[in-house]
Amino acid sequence: MAWPTPAQAGPAAPAEVGELRLERAPDGLYLSASLQFALPELAEDALYKGIPMFFVVEAEVMRDRWYWSDRQVAEAKRYLRLSYQPLTRRWRLNVSAVPFTNSGLGVVLSQNFDDFPDALSAIQRISRWKIADSDVIEADAVHAVNFRFRLDMSQFPRPFQIGAVGRSGWSLLVARSQRLPPAEPSK
Q: What is the pLDDT of residues 116-139, one digit of tens each?
């Protein structure tokens, strides 16, 4: 039985947020995003060896203030764990609102994929994620949303944390800020 090997690609494209949409709804503020990145080669190699990779998606909503620094009105985080199951040759993606622990998965959404590109594609799409309740978003104020997606080194097994410190081959960060203008008055 041959082990699968990471796809050999040319130089990695720069990591960026291809599209970021903010949608006001009666119950809150929703974010949809399309990310474009290639997983670092070291991380992809570790995945194929059965070591899970952890990611964090963060959104911060700031209210603009002219007289002082901007005020944070909401913050949302989503944690992802991607792992390869060598026996079944399948990929598993777990999504949770809290960090993963060794005591169990807790409440998570799990999806299985037959191949790596499909699993990576699921990570790169964020659809209608509620990042703030409607009561914290003032209709007549300008808000800014700071979005960030990163590889979470703090959840790696301890030997990887020690070996990966300071190595650029493990870094993955995608970030973007976007302004949310005041709501248009109802007619």
A: 999 999 999 999 999 999 899 888
Residue-wise pLDDT for 22-31, tens only, equals 999 999 999 9
Read off the pTM.
0.81
Find all residues with CB under 8 Å of 14, minimum gap 6, and list them: none
Percentage, residues of the chain above pLDDT 90: 40
Supply φ then ψ for residue 105, to 5 degrees: -85, -25
Please say whether the beta carbons of 21 and 33 come within 8 A. yes
Rounded CA separation 40/148 (Å): 17
Q: What is the C-alpha separation between 57 and 78, in angstroms, rounded?
A: 5
Please compute, for residue 10, the number of CA atoms within 13 A of its CA located in the half-sphere on the CB side.
2
Q: In what order do the strands lie in the sheet with 90-96?
A: 108-113, 90-96, 71-85, 53-63, 143-151, 173-180
Residues 6+ apart with CB under 8 A from 69: none
Round to whole Å and give the CA distance between 66 and 69: 8
Give the CA angle between residues 137, 58, 51 to the nearest 5°. Answer: 160
Distance CA 15, CA 90 (A): 26
